[in-house]
UniProtKB/TrEMBL annotation:
This is DCC family thiol-disulfide oxidoreductase YuxK. InterPro entries: DCC1-like (IPR007263). The lineage of its organism: Bacteria, Bacillati, Actinomycetota, Actinomycetes, Micromonosporales.
């Protein structure tokens, strides 16, 4: 793998909004890709891991999840963002970041840009909306 990869939930509108912010505002050489379009096997990731949290797979094969993945992404970005990434790695901040991350993940459907589909596991989303994300008509 030549490039680091940041993997997020592309079926979640809140997550997609965050990924679009990253692509617009955070200069990084990392690929930012929804897990639904990523080669998870090549990245060494599972669907369960990707449903649980954002994932970072470094060009060197290093891995991180949740706020640790965000810290890695920021560390691989421009100078000001690297400072924020370093801040996320400070032990007390890192310890506090996980409960906050889990709260956001559980409530992402209530956050700006979120939709009801954001709160469902992938299996339920596919059952309701199909693999394309459009509501199924029931046959």
């Amino acid at each position: 793998m030549e490039t680091s990869t940041f993997v997020y939930d592309g079926d979640c509108a809140f997550c997609t909004s965050c990924a679009e912010f990253i692509e617009r505002r955070i200069p990084t050489a990392a690929r930012v890709v929804p897990w639904q379009f990523a080669d998870l096997e090549a990245l060494g990731l599972t669907v369960a891991e990707c449903e649980e949290a954002v994932q970072w797979v470094g060009a060197d094969g290093s891995r991180a999840a949740g706020p640790d993945a965000i810290a890695k992404l920021l560390a691989a970005s421009g100078p000001l963002w690297r400072i924020a990434g370093a801040g996320l790695r400070i032990p007390p901040v890192r310890v506090a970041a996980w409960p906050l991350y889990r709260w956001v993940a559980r409530n992402r459907h209530r956050l700006p840009g979120g939709t009801a589909a954001c709160s469902l596991p992938q299996e339920a989303r596919e059952r309701l909306y199909g693999p394309t994300g459009r509501p199924t008509t029931g046959a």
